[in-house]
Amino acid sequence: MNQKNNNKSLTISLKITLILSFISYPVFSQIFNAEQNPLSVKWRQIQASGFKVIYPRELEKEAQRMANTLPHIYPYVGGSLGRQKTSIPVLLQNRGVVSNGFVQLGPKKSEFYTTPPQQFDSQDWLNNLAVHELRHVAQFDKLTGGKAHPFPEEVHLAWFGASIPIWFFEGDAVSTETSLTNAGRGRQPSWIMPYRAALLEGKNFSYSKASFGSDKDITPGYYQLGYLMASNIRKQEGKYIFDSVLTDIRRRPFRLYPFSNTLKKFTGKGSHQWFKQTNSLLKEKWTAQAEKSHTENYSALNKPSSYASNYFLPVRLTANTILTLKQSKADVPQFTVIGKDRKETRLLNIGPQEQPWYSYANGLIVWDEIRYDPRYRQRSYSVICSYDMKYKLVKKLSSKSRLFSPSLSADGKKIIAVRFDLSNQCNLVELDAGNGKLLYTYPNPENLILQTPSFSEDGHTVAYISVSEQGKALWTSNRSGQTRQLIAPSQQQITRPIFIDQQIAFNAHYSGVDNIYSVDVQSKKISALSDAKYGAFNPSFSKSSSTVIFNNYMPGGYEVAEMPLKALRPEKNNFVYFGEPAQKQENTGNVFSKIPDSTYTSRPYAALGNLFNVHSVIPIIEDEYQFGLQLNSDNLLNTLSAFAGAEYHRDLDRFEYNVGFSLKSFYPIISTTYRNRPRRTFYSTNKGIYQGDWREHNIQLQALLPINLNALGDTYSLSLKTATSFTQRYAAQNMPGNYISVLRFPMEYGFTFTHAMRQAERDIAPKWAQILRFTYQHQPFDKQLDGRLFAAEGFLYFPGFFRNHSFLANFNYQTATGVRKYDREINAVYGYNNIRATSMLKNTLLFNYRFPIAFPDAELGPVAYFRNFRGGLFCHYENIGAGTTLAEPKTYGFELHTSMNVLRYQPIVDLGARCVFVNKTYHQNPILELILNYSF
């Protein structure tokens, strides 16, 4: 539409970016991990009554335990869904330090990440994973008929995401883990605390906000929402209600809102009505609980905020200053000092952690931080870092380590930390705080899971938490071999013990609300120290003032509060246990109480012998003219992906056939694709314009080396790529006699470097980031086709004028000759396709300022949930230095965006509009571009 028009009309174009394949994994409880382990891992396998346990050889003992456990508990876990047997591979992953677990289809498998976290349930970690993830297996089996290979698996998984809300999958699994064991998150007040605090403080979240979250407030989360709704539904409708619902969905899959409508069919209420009814019940029960409990109000020592902010682990530095680890919706995790008048001073941004953690003593801060392997990102480490506050010096004290919860001695010279090896052996280790050198390893003959240790004032005794299937216990030990159990194993969520003279303070929930308690080291008498309304955590003792400074939870986050060191009588347990009806319905007791102890035959798992695993056929839609079907294969170790497909070209009335694979086990990722495809061109002669058609064999080969590093709040990525292809054309129709039938190995090289600072939830883009990208293409092996292309792209991100604003400067340059003269490798100006070109594209320059406008968390009934509104201003230049100046951009304008959940589905839709004004020399009407981004 490049014509003059005096009427002020708009040129409208539609840009749709689908940040997913046509079939994409929904976000169940966890993000599925498609990364690889290093080649050095030696895999073994055990077959056990439908379960194939695949594991690194260091985990032989744990694998034998899981081979006994999984078949034994599955009939109980799947019982209320009518599932007694299953068939599924279970991978035990031990190279990473991030604790997780998931079940997926495409291919069908479950993965357990075996390194225990430093704060979780009061039971064995792998048992905790087993009972939760097997409920997901039962859910999937119920929906797929229990097939070992429910082909096509990716289609089934996409259907699950479109049919069933994620709160059901996770809430039902949490309900099951709680009903079948003596533990479970449904028994933890701190886990449900954000929901309780919000309701009792009058924050009545909508169904969508409770399900999908917020960029402004702390919301319950779909785990907590799902557990409470599932428990309420089971209480009123019985043990087998979800068996009936999932059976009906499987029989009649293609309906709008199938879960809600089926739930209404059997119970008379849909999902939204159940949410409202559950909320009313929760408010009633939690109000009654609050009326029975004596609580104190604690004043916040941090400044108030209009959005959720957490000030974790406060420590008093002086009478007027407090050190915290601050995290918020608008800020990345950072050490912050709160001074006079609650003024905040940022010290240092830090990287990802397994849980918020640091220790301070004598001017030194130490903390643990996750670092990933540069290439094999299934392997990660937990390293210890330190920060000298006097000299402002950051030091990494360990490399490629698996160390957690480091705590300093009072003089700042020693560190006590938890270490896990690759066999899941756990020990406390003492380190030199100056250089990280190992000083002593505390024995742990029973291999209890150990958590959050700390030193006594003199540095000779260590307090710590142990976790086993019997529960959590509190211990002290010293290097002389003396070990005492101060609190016997129980289901109390005992965490983070610290010494206060002859007492040890710790967190627990004896009153049904998490509070701070102390135990006398000699008499073992337990006293309460706090009476928080919703939860008190992370105590530290200030000798100068004889007070305890701690985290007091309120609906806006973890505040900093202070209280006198005074022993109180522990309150009566008034916890409201919403999982009790489901537990009585199951009536199993602890399913882990009588696990068999057989020894299974173990044999090597040949990675090369299990490369192909065909699991799905999926529809492929390239555009309005090209679509087809694709057969997908992925092996269980994520080292080989392969496909074969056929696509119909509607405009050519012909089919394309393709096959390819990506081998990811080596340092470079090797990919190749073969296509047999139809092609069409139009060419000009002295007799006119003619149409020519042909078919071609096209083989493409690529090697990609991705390197990724992270440290503190920064990530660095380096990518090297080389690619080539071979094309043989045949079956020519109406082509000129001199057309080229063979294209021999054109070469392409790519280099990309990226540095970015960690982003907060509200950030539009990183505050600081740099991207440099270079591309070079030529034909060294084909003398008939001379031509080269070189392209360079640079992106520089800067902070904007206000918080969470972002400014981008992007410059792109290319030069092309010969057969590549008309190729375009760089980004064009906004509106490019609707503007008449007057010269060859050589470079572009973009200035883009983006900013948040509002975070409404607004629900428009079942139609949409609006999370945020964002705006942007831009000016875009083309061919700077060739007749164009900075005073005359080719295009300029503004854009508006909103992120929303549509029709109460989990995927986030980013809908936007960009109004592009064109330089007057082009006599071009304004252009309106509609933008649709769709991501999980």
Question: Your description of this structure?
Answer:
The chain is α+β, with helices and mostly antiparallel strands. It contains eleven helices and 47 strands. The strands form eight sheets. The protein has an 18-stranded mixed β-sheet that branches. Strands 5-6-4-3-2-30 form a six-stranded mixed β-sheet, with helices on one face. A four-stranded antiparallel β-sheet has the order 7-8-9-10, with no helix packed on it. A hairpin with a 2-residue loop joins strand 28 (547-554) and strand 29. Helix 4 crosses helix 7 (222-237) and helix 7 packs across helix 10.
Describe the structure concisely for a colleague.
With 936 residues, the protein is an alpha+beta fold.
Features:
single chain, 936 residues, alpha+beta, 18-stranded mixed beta sheet, 47 strands, disordered N terminus
Oligomer: single chain
Main sheet specs: 18 strands, mixed
- Uncertain spans, ≥5 residues at pLDDT below 50? 1-11, 13-31
Rg calculated over all Cα atoms: 30 Å
Give the number of helices: 11
Number-wise, the strands total 47
Mean pLDDT: 93
Secondary structure layout plus pairing:
Blueprint: E1 11-19, E2 43-48, E3 51-56, H1 60-77, E4 88-93, E5 100-104, E6 109-113, H2 125-144, H3 153-163, H4 166-179, H5 189-200, H6 207-212, H7 222-237, H8 241-251, H9 258-267, H10 271-292, E7 309-316, E8 322-328, E9 334-338, E10 344-349, E11 359-361, E12 364-372, E13 380-388, E14 393-396, E15 403-408, E16 414-420, E17 426-432, E18 438-442, E19 449-455, E20 461-468, E21 471-478, E22 483-490, E23 495-500, E24 503-508, E25 515-520, E26 526-528, E27 536-542, E28 547-554, E29 557-564, H11 580-586, E30 603-604, E31 614-623, E32 626-634, E33 640-649, E34 654-663, E35 669-685, E36 688-711, E37 714-733, E38 742-757, E39 769-778, E40 788-799, E41 806-816, E42 843-854, E43 858-860, E44 864-878, E45 891-902, E46 908-918, E47 927-935
Parallel strand pairs: 1-47, 3-4, 4-6
Antiparallel strand pairs: 2-3, 2-30, 5-6, 7-8, 8-9, 9-10, 11-12, 12-13, 13-14, 15-16, 16-17, 17-18, 19-20, 20-21, 21-22, 23-24, 24-25, 25-26, 27-28, 28-29, 31-32, 32-33, 33-34, 34-35, 35-36, 36-37, 37-38, 38-39, 39-40, 40-41, 41-42, 42-44, 43-44, 44-45, 45-46, 46-47
